[in-house]
Amino acid sequence: MEKYDDLIKHLGTGEHNKISRQNLAVKLGLSDRKMREHIEFAQLEGVPIVNISNGYFLAESKDELREYTRRELHRRTAIENKCKALNYTNWFDRGDLWYTEDVI
User: Fold this and answer.
1) What's the pLDDT tens digit per position in 5-33?
2) Fewer CB in 10 Å around end: N or C, the chain?
3) Number of folded domains that form the chain
4) Would 102 be classed as within a structural domain?
């Protein structure tokens, strides 16, 4: 996990020490996209980085981490439900177009 030492060094512990991804990116000299990737890869390595209310921090406890993962799983379910509904939409069979041909 040494490759994430700089990231971990700039993260506080607990929600009261959260930092925005934008500020974190500036401190680490990364673009926003690279910052998101870096955070995701660190999480995949087991670094307990939590994102709540537009801020990132290291989880203070297993309960805090459990709550974060519960929220993430809920988001996943909501996204899956939305995608399923859109995959089976009959919107385009209704006869009334909500777009014009020049938009396509």
Assistant:
1) 999 999 999 999 999 999 999 999 999 99
2) C
3) 1
4) no
